[in-house]
Amino acid sequence: MAGGARPLDTGERGVLDLLLVEGEPATTTPDSNRVPEIIGDEIRLAPGLGRRRGRLHLAAAEPAGYRVAAVTPVPQPADLDVVRDSYDRVADNYVDMVTTTGVGDIRTHPWHRAAMDVFADAVGGLGPVLDVGCGPGTVTAYLAERGVDVAGVDLSPRMIEHARRLHPECTFSVGSSTDLDLAEASWGGLLGWWSLFNLPRHVLPRVLSSFARALMPEGQLIIATHVGDGDVRRTEAYGGVPVRWTTYRWQPDQLAALVERAGLRPTAELRLPADGPIGPTVVLVAQRER
């Protein structure tokens, strides 16, 4: 098998993201309908995401006539634990800022709200939506109010505690954008709303590829992030709380190119000038083709 993969030995067990195909290379067709017959085992639901589809449990050897194409895992950032701890520390101050001043609340930013409204209308009838890096769940709840079937996930356990407290009607779980185990073509929409700028430059393209794979045909991705050149290393944030993270800034054209290389088609872009300490920003919407 290509890429160093191998069939499981008889009696051996494993957990893989996979694509089952049947036939000659020139005429291969998906055969997901026969998964229970071929594998004879269960599908594990992703923790905390309810009915969302998860990985397949495999037992024994690879079925004759089928190839297993394993998905390349996303590399884990070297500073993942440090970034998680930093967001845990700032969570209380950040939530206080959002709830008392409206800063960070999408409802107080007309252009951001307009972009999110268009996104909500586009994904409403497609399927479930996942807010990746949801923080305290402000945008997750906003989408839920608009009738979107949405859940949130965030790296910071403390942020998720706040999200569950503030928005008990929504579903939230703890997880990293680099390790989400998203099943192929299972999501109508994905958000990277101010949540991907801490990903190193060699990691973001792989995360975007995993997002593209996870979207249904015509599924939508919306990203908001900082615009600029070079990286900014932060040592404090939100009221002087000590943190250690890097903000990786991109030019809009660079970000659009990354999204295209991931397999998505950019459909809308909103460039905004500096707004106080935030600096210039971009909102990018992209779609998976049929």
Automatic annotation (TrEMBL):
<dbReference type="InterPro" id="IPR041698">
    <property type="entry name" value="Methyltransf_25"/>
</dbReference>
<dbReference type="Pfam" id="PF13649">
    <property type="entry name" value="Methyltransf_25"/>
</dbReference>
<keyword id="KW-0489">Methyltransferase</keyword>
<dbReference type="GO" id="GO:0032259">
    <property type="term" value="P:methylation"/>
</dbReference>
<dbReference type="GO" id="GO:0008168">
    <property type="term" value="F:methyltransferase activity"/>
</dbReference>
<keyword id="KW-0808">Transferase</keyword>
<protein>
    <submittedName>
        <fullName>Methyltransferase family protein</fullName>
    </submittedName>
</protein>
<dbReference type="InterPro" id="IPR029063">
    <property type="entry name" value="SAM-dependent_MTases_sf"/>
</dbReference>
<feature type="domain" description="Methyltransferase">
    <location>
        <begin position="129"/>
        <end position="219"/>
    </location>
</feature>
